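As a warm-up, study this chain.
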Amino acid sequence: MGVKRFFRNEIKELHDFFKETRSYIVNFSLGSTFRNVGTHIEKSCSDMWHTIPLMIRGMKAEAKKRSDLTIVMLILILLCTGFVMIWSASMYEARLAGNEFSIVTSQIKYAAVGLVLMYLVSLIDYRHTRKYAGFAVLLMFVMLCLIFVDGFSGEVKGATRGLSIGPVTFMPVEPTKIAVLLFMSHIMDKRISEVHKTKTFLKTLIFCGVLCLIIVLQPALSSGIIVAGLIIGIFFMAGGRLSYIVALGGLGCGAVAYYVLSSPWRVQRLFAFLDPFADLLGSGWQPAQSLMALGSGGLFGQGIGNGVAKLSYIPESQNDYIFSIIGEELGLFGCLFVIFGFLFLVFRLLILGLRAPDMYGRLICSGMGILIAIQVFLNIAVVTNSMPSTGITLPFISSGGSSLVTLLFGMGIVLNVSRNIRRKNN
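Now compare it with the structure written out below.
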């Protein structure tokens, strides 16, 4: 009876949703919506200059509070695991280039920058970040659009995903994830009493659709899926209706299916996913080599540095497919060690979310947990051929400066939330 009542209520909510949607679309004014967005961004920009002195004065007081050392230790363990595996996975290609430590050295430098940034951000009261949320999202929109402008775009793995500004080239989609996290947390907190309304859902849908469309056109389908999952996750944590969540997920799955089936080379990847050994020398090469690397590791692996998959069998194995090198050289137990490390980290972030002093801090912590969980799940799913191949890095472990520095920046905000939790408890 309970199950029948549950589905009856959900069907009724879905009916009410379509009824409200119809009335909202009739009364919807695109011009007023953009005026509201513009007003919000203008207010955010004006508040920034008043907030900066307060942030600087507050850093000394924040330094006296303790962060969550469990999260810090988990991050350091994952980083050190990444350093060892990046060195092992890249030594062959790096040695051919003249220095087998060049790639891991670069990663260590990015990690040092990220850790310093994480510490400094952890000294800033996280409540101040809401003042920058609207400006940050606007800036990311501009950067994502600049990728398509000649003179600013930089190719990454054959796609125009990089943004070149002078000597610096980075992937703006990575900081976009943190900007979306802050913006959605701020908006959902501000409109928590309206989160169940159709108006809030449709605005979330429009924001998600426009942003993900720009990301997917780079093309970066995997990043678009991650950003969409993050938006849906925060909307759910804020108390959004299950029928709205199902609608968002259904629309997203439909859009992904259409995008994949409309491109011949993506259809080829889909067939390679269904049977990678059918075209072993073609589209099935990378997933097949990944499966063989994982299988050859056994329980305890072949030992660090002793794997053969990195010998050009898996191209750039220190990036998206580093988990296959972990399986080959550290075995099943090494894979489980990494998986349980991520599970513990996500669990800890969700616990911090439950203990946060306010809804904004709760959504930030749970949102970071959702972001990391989605990336880890998708990366391992690709490496184990549980889903078609797409470029997704393994957080804190895969090689890549933009992703690492951005994640550590986000974790700095989380650590400041933990500082305020401890002060509240004391």
